[in-house]
Every structure is written in structure tokens, then in C-alpha cells.
Design goal:
The structure is a single chain. The chain is mostly helical and 336 residues long. The chain is built from 14 helices and 2 strands, in the order H-H-H-H-H-E-H-E-H-H-H-H-H-H-H-H. It has one domain. A two-stranded antiparallel ribbon has the order 1-2. The longest helix is centred in the first third of the chain and has 29 residues.
């Protein structure tokens, strides 16, 4: 059970933070289909930061958490910077936001693979030395517990063999959700996604608020990209994030653009991804029997499970979903 919970968290946390990224952009009135591309960029920048600092010998394994925080910060910064391309096209040029997001999704993997090949002469960028578990994973012995001490299911899940990014993303999710719904900034941001003309008439700068929404969205997606690379890909960048950006969009729609509903959806989809990735090693009852492996279902069914669930959920919930009214509509100050 502990293994199942830990693996579910590993897959759910990137979905959680990237879905929140989509909420911030779309609540401001800009459709951010570029989440996949921004995640790819964030994963590359984070891994590249780790690579550079390790190569320079600035950090050792004992200071791995500080290195991880620096990499997370650079991923957020460059994710925000990359998202400004979408913001400029959507807000200033009033271009079709769907096409703009698709263009970034096509550009990001090509650019990342080009840079990886330029730097390493191969198609994958790994850490310069060591692996993610030895450098960044926190174990219960690091927290003062004995190696043989039993912390129970919850203790073993949350205090043993975890990455600090898990708690950083959860804290960010809670804080930013409160900001979105309980502050003046959040109210103004949401007003620009619902009725920008009314917001403008009250003195709110719609262009600035939409830029803010997309920039925050880019920073969060960059963080999600590096978190994905760190926890599921052994801190490696390969020019792809297994479709997590698109799954995050589905999570956001399933959650009806609301943080709490989106969080529940993220853990549902994270559980499905966990089953798909580790069905052969999941011991449900702790009795040494790997039931999902032994029942004889084709492995490809498990791999398709998250995407099948996505289609089924969207088919049954899309009619009840209520997107922001002005989502995807370029704002024209002269229109009333």
C-alpha cells in the first residue's frame, strides 16, 4: 500500500501543479494549450542547471537539496519566459490562442532536442554525476529516524523516500489557490476571464492581468516539468514529458477550473498513471502476490488506461463543465 501511495503521489503532483498553471491562464482569459511544451522546456532547463553545477563542482551530494531548489527556480523562470511568447501572440497580436499554443508545443521538443544534442552529442541529457535518488531523495534516516523504524503507512509514504518537490508543489498549490479566490488580485484576474469589458470599466488593466495569468501559468508549468523529470525520469531530459501537459488540461477541465476539484482529479489520474507504469510491481495486499501482473491482461491495456479514463471522464463531464466566458477571446478595448 505504501508503494502504491508513493507512486501515485509521484505522478499526481506534476499533474496537480500543471493543472493549476492552466487554471491561472484560462481564468485570465487565455487558453494555454502550450502546457506540454512549457513542461518540456522546464524539464530541460532544470536538468541542465543540475548538470552545469555538478560539472563545475560547486555542489556535492550533501547539498543536493539546495541544488534542487536552484534548478526548480530556473525552471520556473524559463517556463515563465517561454510562456511570454504565447502571451504576446494572444494578447498583443490577438492571434488564435489554440494555434499559438500548438506552435509552442511543436517548437519546444525540437528546440530542446537540438540543445541537448549540441551540448551532449546525444538525445538525452542526464545528470553529470550520480542519480536523482542519491542526490535528491530524502529518506527517514535523514530526518532522524532509525532505518528499521516503522512509521506506519502514512509515515512511510510521506516521510521516507520522497522528494522535496512534492511538498513544495503542494504548498504552492494551496497558497496560489487561496490567492486566486481570496485576494483582490485573484478577483481581478478572474474578472478578466469572465467579462473583460466590465473589468476594464472599473479601471482594471485587462492586458496586464492576462500577462500576469499567463506568466504565472508558465512558471508553474516549468516547475511541473522539472518535477516530472526529477521524480519519474531520474532527472533526465529527453524532449518529452509523456503527455503530462495534455493530461493536465484534461484534469483542469474535469475539475471544472476549480482548485479543489482539480486536485481530486489529479490524484485520480495520478493513480491511473501509477497503475499503467508499475502494474507488474504493485503488491496490493502486501502478500507477495502481484495480482495485476498475474491476471493476464495485456500490458498495453494498462498503458492505455490513463488516456482511456481521460476520454471517458471528459465524455461524461464536458457538458457540465463551465469554462470562463471570455476564455480564448482576444480583448479589444474598443468593443463594448
Amino acid at each position: 500500500m505504501t508503494f502504491l501511495l508513493q507512486q501515485t503521489l509521484i505522478y499526481a503532483i506534476p499533474l496537480l501543479i500543471v493543472a493549476l498553471a492552466g487554471i491561472f491562464a484560462e481564468r485570465s482569459g487565455v487558453i494555454n494549450l502550450a502546457l506540454e511544451g512549457i513542461m518540456i522546456m522546464g524539464a530541460f532547463i532544470g536538468v541542465f542547471t543540475v548538470y552545469l553545477f555538478q560539472e563545475a563542482g560547486i555542489f556535492d551530494q550533501d547539498s543536493g537539496q539546495l541544488l534542487m531548489l536552484i534548478a526548480l527556480g530556473t525552471s520556473a523562470f524559463f517556463g515563465a519566459l517561454f510562456s511570454l511568447l504565447l502571451a504576446f501572440a494572444a494578447i498583443n497580436l490577438r492571434a488564435d490562442q489554440t494555434i499559438g499554443g500548438t506552435a509552442l508545443n511543436l517548437m519546444a521538443p525540437a528546440l530542446v532536442l537540438f540543445l541537448i544534442n549540441l551540448i551532449t552529442s546525444q538525445n538525452t541529457m542526464n545528470m553529470y554525476t550520480g542519480d536523482a535518488a542519491s542526490w535528491f531523495m530524502i529518506k527517514k534516516t535523514d530526518l532522524g529516524f532509525a532505518r528499521t523504524q516503522d512509521l506506519g503507512v502514512l509515515g512511510e509514504t510521506f516521510l521516507h523516500k520522497f522528494y522535496l518537490t512534492t511538498y513544495i508543489c503542494i504548498i504552492l498549490y494551496v497558497v496560489l489557490s487561496i490567492i486566486l479566490y481570496k485576494t483582490r488580485f485573484g478577483l481581478r484576474l478572474r474578472a478578466c476571464g469572465e467579462n473583460p469589458q466590465a473589468a476594464d470599466s472599473l479601471g482594471i488593466n485587462v492586458y496586464k492581468m492576462r500577462y500576469a495569468g499567463v506568466t504565472i501559468s508558465g512558471a508553474l508549468a516549468g516547475i511541473g516539468g522539472f518535477t516530472f523529470a526529477l521524480t519519474t525520469a531520474n532527472c533526465a531530459s529527453t524532449g518529452e514529458v509523456a503527455g503530462f501537459g495534455f493530461l493536465a488540461l484534461a484534469v483542469m477541465i474535469f475539475g471544472n477550473w476549480k482548485p479543489l476539484n482539480t486536485a481530486l482529479a489529479a490524484f485520480l489520474f495520478g493513480f491511473c498513471k501509477c497503475i499503467a507504469a508499475g502494474y507488474s510491481t504493485i503488491d496490493i495486499n502486501g502478500d507477495g502476490v502481484y495480482l495485476l501482473k498475474e491476471i493476464g491482461i495485456d500490458p498495453n491495456i494498462y498503458r492505455m488506461l490513463p488516456f482511456i479514463i481521460t476520454l471517458v471522464v471528459l465524455a461524461f463531464t464536458s457538458k457540465k463543465s463551465r469554462a470562463p466566458k471570455a476564455e480564448g477571446v482576444p480583448y479589444d478595448k474598443g468593443t463594448r
